[in-house]
Design goal:
The complex is a heterodimer of chains A (235) and B (592).
Chain A: E1 2-6, H1 10-24, E2 30-34, H2 37-46, E3 51-54, H3 63-71, E4 76-81, H4 87-93, E5 97-100, H5 105-116, E6 128-133, E7 136-141, E8 145-151, E9 154-159, E10 164-167, H6 171-177, E11 182-186, E12 189-192, E13 196-202, E14 206-211, E15 216-219, H7 221-231
Parallel strand pairs in A: 1-2, 1-3, 3-4, 4-5
Antiparallel strand pairs in A: 6-7, 8-9, 8-12, 9-10, 11-12, 13-14, 14-15
Chain B: H1 2-19, E1 24-26, E2 35-37, E3 40-44, E4 61-63, E5 68-69, E6 79-88, E7 98-102, E8 108-113, E9 116-121, E10 138-142, E11 150-159, E12 167-168, E13 172-176, H2 177-211, H3 217-240, H4 245-254, H5 256-273, H6 279-301, H7 310-337, H8 343-362, H9 368-413, H10 416-432, H11 434-454, E14 460-461, H12 462-480, E15 483-489, E16 496-497, H13 501-510, E17 519-529, E18 532-539, H14 548-552, H15 554-566, E19 571-578, E20 581-588
Parallel strand pairs in B: 1-6, 15-17
Antiparallel strand pairs in B: 2-13, 3-4, 3-6, 5-12, 6-11, 7-10, 7-13, 8-9, 8-11, 14-16, 17-18, 18-20, 19-20
The chains are: A alpha/beta (235), B alpha+beta (592).
Chain lengths: 235, 592
């Protein structure tokens, strides 16, 4: 795992680095501490990053500027900051977790667990997805997202109005930050449960579901049962 | 029946024919409690027969208006006679005594009824030596024996050597003794009542003035009330206390001063209290018109201005009263339009007074003006207390605002994010190097103690502020594991500044351009300039990025607010990049 720490206070940065090394152990491939926003942007462009640990109060300049850029990238962002009053806002932009300063080891471990486990309890979720569209950051409100389809390294975001946007994160990564109504229905699909109108069963273990606009998506066998359980109380 | 009608018609025509004789006035004492006797025939000189009803005064001059004057208004010469024929159409009340009431009639006079001397006030004489001056406010009973129905001649013999005035201001009045007496008692009671009210109100507003020193328009209102009280008191003194006529006219002239102040102070008070436009120009006009209407009639009584102008001045005086009231009402209405507190009740009160004045002069409602005056004062007191309550509320709100600002200051400078970040660094040092952690705790405690000691102060010595900045740099050095220092030149020890200004600028300086650097230094320079102090704060932070955030930041707003609060509109702040760093300079007209 490649970890990037963006923190302008060296002492705090050193502590974070120590802890990350301990927590990840052998899984850690590289770790880097950066003090300025400018350097961060350069680093992200040229190096592989899996997790960004970001201090929101970066040297006076609003860390949210960097946050918006970061969440559009393929890696997950964990905010580590004393500005707890802005936690909710950070979640809405789509960060994986918000670790309030000062923190202990346990809290950081929990944040890293959320990177991998699906069943972690999520108290706040993204209200928008930020994507890089033709070099510019575009904010897509979650309500406008119909479903997401994995396409190699990218994810296609299918919008209610019919457009398609590409997100740098994997389907796996996005499923961590999306609201609970967005459910993995297939290896390559995440759909908004509230939009599913009916399920179809074909022979040979082929399942499909239809969304209220008429789109039909494949459903995998393992997900089918879960989906039925979800939908039945409503039916 | 027909006979009755005939008789009535006959009597009526008789009355009509007799009314043509303009020197005869019909008097109905049963209908009018107090009758002004005006329209006298006048002759200069002295003769024993002039008191006789048989003597014909058809060649005498008729003196118009209610006032009498002698020697063309020039005091101190000779003797004059006045004659007036009255007619009682019906028998008088046999149980009541008729009386004549005289406020004042220059030095001395004698009154003859059908040739018979019935009253004497002082001793009139054609020579100065033998004249004795009378007193003011006399009631003379008319003997019942001479008041039978029909025609009567009243003749007044007047001499004037002891007064400076040549004018008798109030007419001779007639009525039943009891009615005149009752009328005088009522006037007297009203005078005492009004004078008392005005004294109390004047004292009240004077007390307010002492309490709120900066509200000088209250002095105007206080002076207005005091003038009213003095004028009414002197007037009462002249009318009801028998003042020697040689002093009467001097006192009456002195009483013009409070009268003038009454005319002027009320509208001027409203002009300044409600801060109306053109207030200075209007004040000048009000002062001039007031002077004219007060001084000229008085000059006439001393013979310095033709006495025949008196009636003109009387109208001018009345018009001036209306003018001042209309100006006051206009100002109050203007203020009401601009939603100034208390203006509406002031306007209502003034209108009540105007209505009272109009009623008592046109509809002859006795004391209408006094009732209007009392109503106005009630409304004005309500108006002023409304304004006072409003000001108190503003004051209270300002206090609250100050307290809130103080809280915000503490929140801004000891904000949770600063403390939490510091705690986080302490935890980090505890793991890495515990002695440094304890250094950081001490540095943080130093800074917090100093911040707390500044709270509530408007100005602090710059040297104290520098200590705080150094404590802050100490904390930040330990937090960032860098070396921040501050050097100071030009501080002599007693220069002052609102608290946390340099601290705010240092915080701002720290947040720019120290990434990847090992050290940072700040230089504070203090120079005495022409009208105060110039402080320059330099720091060596790299300025590769634009600093828009400085201009918009809450920190800079705080700096501006505190400077404006301490040195209203006599400060300036400049900032910008300089060689090797960034510089902010503050100039203010502070005490050095």
């Amino acid at each position: 795992m490649n970890v990037l720490i963006v923190e302008d206070e060296r002492v705090a940065a050193r502590r974070l680095e120590r802890m990350v090394r301990e927590i990840l152990g052998d899984k850690l491939v590289s770790i880097r501490c950066i003090e300025s926003l400018h350097d961060t942007e350069l680093f992200i462009a040229r190096n592989p990053v899996d997790v960004l640990l970001l201090d929101l109060n970066l040297g006076g300049k609003d860390g949210f500027e960097l946050l918006k850029t970061a969440v559009a990238e393929s890696f997950q962002t964990i905010v580590v900051s004393a500005n707890t009053d802005r936690a909710l806002e950070a979640f809405e932009y789509g960060v994986l977790d918000f670790v309030p300063k000062p923190f202990d080891r346990g809290r950081l471990i929990k944040a890293f667990e959320r990177l991998e486990r699906v069943d972690t309890v999520v108290d706040h979720t993204a209200k928008m997805l930020i994507v890089r569209n033709q070099g510019k950051l575009q904010m897509v409100p979650i309500e406008q997202v119909k479903f997401l389809q994995g396409a190699g390294d990218y994810v296609e975001i299918h919008l209610q109005e019919g457009g398609v946007l590409l997100h740098n994160k994997s389907l796996e990564a996005l499923s961590r930050i999306l609201p609970s109504t967005f459910v993995r229905i297939h290896k390559s699909y995440i759909a908004d449960l509230t939009r599913i109108t009916n399920m179809k069963i074909y022979g040979g273990g082929k399942y499909e579901c239809a969304l209220n606009e008429g789109t039909v998506l494949p459903v995998s066998r393992t997900r089918y049962k879960e989906l039925i359980n979800y939908l039945e109380p409503q039916a | 029946m027909k006979i009755v009608i005939f008789i009535v018609l006959f009597l009526h025509s008789l009355i009509l024919s007799q009314q043509i004789d303009e020197t005869v006035e019909y008097i109905f004492p049963d209908e009018n409690p107090v009758i002004n006797l005006v329209g006298w025939k006048v002759a200069y000189g002295d003769s024993g027969v002039w008191s006789s009803p048989e003597y014909s005064d058809s060649s005498w001059e008729l003196n118009p208006g209610f006032g009498l004057w002698v020697n063309e208004g020039k005091p101190g010469t000779g003797i004059r006679w006045y004659r007036k024929t009255i007619f009682f159409p019906e028998p008088l009340d046999s149980l009541a005594t008729l009386a004549l009431y005289q406020v004042a009639a220059v030095s001395a006079n004698e009154i003859y009824w059908d040739g018979r001397l019935i009253a004497r006030n002082g001793v009139p004489s054609p020579e100065m030596k033998s004249e004795r001056s009378g007193v003011s406010g006399r009631i003379f009973p008319v003997p019942d024996a001479v008041t039978m129905p029909g025609k009567h001649l009243i003749a007044v013999r007047i001499s004037n050597f002891h007064t400076l005035s040549g004018v008798i201001e109030a007419p001779l009045q007639m009525g039943y003794f009891s009615k005149i007496h009752g009328y005088l008692l009522r006037s007297q009671a009203l005078s005492i009542f009004l004078a008392g009210i005005f004294f109390v109100i004047a004292l009240f507003h004077f007390a307010i003035l002492l309490g709120h020193g900066n509200k000088w328009p209250y002095a105007l209102f206080s002076a207005f009330c005091l003038s009213c009280a003095v004028h009414i008191s002197i007037r009462g003194l002249l009318r009801f206390f028998q003042i020697d006529l040689s002093r009467y006219y001097i006192l009456a002239a002195i009483n013009d001063i409070p009268w003038f102040l009454m005319l002027v102070l009320l509208p001027v008070f409203f002009l300044f209290e409600f801060n109306s436009p053109y207030k200075k120009r209007l004040t000048t006009i009000i002062l001039l018109s007031g002077l004219v209407v007060v001084i000229f009639p008085r000059l006439a009584t001393f013979g310095l201005v033709p006495v025949s102008w008196l009636s003109t001045f009387e109208s001018a005086n009345r018009i001036n009263v209306y003018f001042t009231l209309v100006v006051s009402i206009a100002v109050a209405l203007w203020a009401g339009f601009h939603r100034k507190i208390g203006s509406l009740s002031a306007a209502l009160g003034l209108m009540a007074f105007l209505a009272g004045v109009i009623l008592s002069s046109s509809a002859k409602v006795e004391n209408g003006w006094a009732v209007g005056f009392a109503v106005m004062n009630i409304f004005l007191t309500v108006s002023l207390s409304n304004q006072m309550a409003y000001r108190n509320r503003l004051l209270h709100e300002a206090d609250l605002r100050g307290a809130r600002l103080e809280l915000e200051l503490l929140k801004k400078h000891i904000h949770p994010h600063f403390l939490l970040n510091s705690l986080n660094s302490i935890v980090a040092w505890l793991e890495e190097n515990p002695p440094v952690a304890s250094q950081l705790v001490n540095a943080l405690a130093d800074e917090l103690r100093m911040l707390l000691s500044f709270s509530g102060k408007k100005l602090i010595p710059i040297s104290e502020e520098v200590r705080l900045c150094r404590a802050h740099l100490n904390v930040m050095s330990l937090r960032q594991d860098k070396k921040f220092t501050m050097s100071v030149t030009g501080i002599e020890g007693n220069e002052q500044l609102p608290p946390l200004i340099i601290h705010t600028l240092v915080e701002n300086g720290l947040s720019h351009g120290y990434a990847n650097k090992e050290t940072g230094f700040f230089t504070l320079t203090c120079i005495c300039i022409k009208k105060g102090i110039r402080l320059t704060l330099f720091n060596d932070g790299a300025c590769e990025e634009p600093r828009n955030t400085f201009r918009e930041g809450t920190g800079f707003r705080y700096v501006k607010t505190r400077l404006e609060e301490a040195f209203p509109s006599s400060w300036r702040v400049d900032y910008g990049p300089v060689e090797g760093g960034w510089e902010v300079s503050i100039e203010y007209e502070g005490v050095s």
